Amino acid sequence: MQPGRRPLIAGNWKMNGLKADSSARVRNLATLLRGAAGLPAEIVVCPPATQIAAVVEAAAGTPILVGGQDCHGQPKGAHTGDVSAPMLADLGCRYVIVGHSERRANHGEGDALVAAKAAAVRAAGLVPIICIGETAAERNAGQAVAVAGRQIDASVPAGTTPANTVIAYEPVWAIGTGRTPTIEEIAEMHAAIRARLVGRFGAPAAGVRVLYGGSMKPENAGPILQVADVDGGLIGGASLEAADFFAICRASGPEASAGD
Ligand code: 13P
Question: Is the CA virtual torsion 163, 26, 35, 230 positive or negative?
């Protein structure tokens, strides 16, 4: 982390739990956060769409912000079953994840669609968390940096600024596997992503936050979050336990390097 870029710790709850589970998880997290005043990180949870209203209500009066996991690229229309960015804004969301590798793989979402979704999120006054990351085959072929660069070029819309965009680097092979890149590999990828953002959008884009995601846990969060170009985390499995997610939030603070 660098001065000027506020760490962001986001939990992606994926398709888990029911309303009561999610509300209870937020209340537990809020209790833990109350005992840790002064944590620098911005804290976001992204519940399933059907649970957003309950989670927003449970998070009221706490520092916890709420995000969506996906949205449509159009603000409205004949799109049965879809949820638009203005609908997420209407519920009280502040962020929306777009381009997660599970959507890219399971729903055939390509870079152009991801860019359209990110633009729709911005147009609704929310901030997209745009996910990129290489597969195992691409990494083994020495293509990880090139793939991330191509995804930055094609998935991130014009007009990107630190205020309107967050990037999440999530190597596909690290998601839900318990495997993570080495600290050196993470540092290399994040530096390359930041350089690409600056190359495309100019010097101010150095302030865009770039999160790491993929098997981040309390046990490995400290060293990952200390990497200079890592500005936070996008956490799946470990975000389903309030205590684990809270431990990762704490690892983003300055006191974490003192022995956590
Ligand atoms: P895990 O933390 O479960 O590996 O998931 C990461 C992820 O996909 C977050 O979006």
Answer: negative
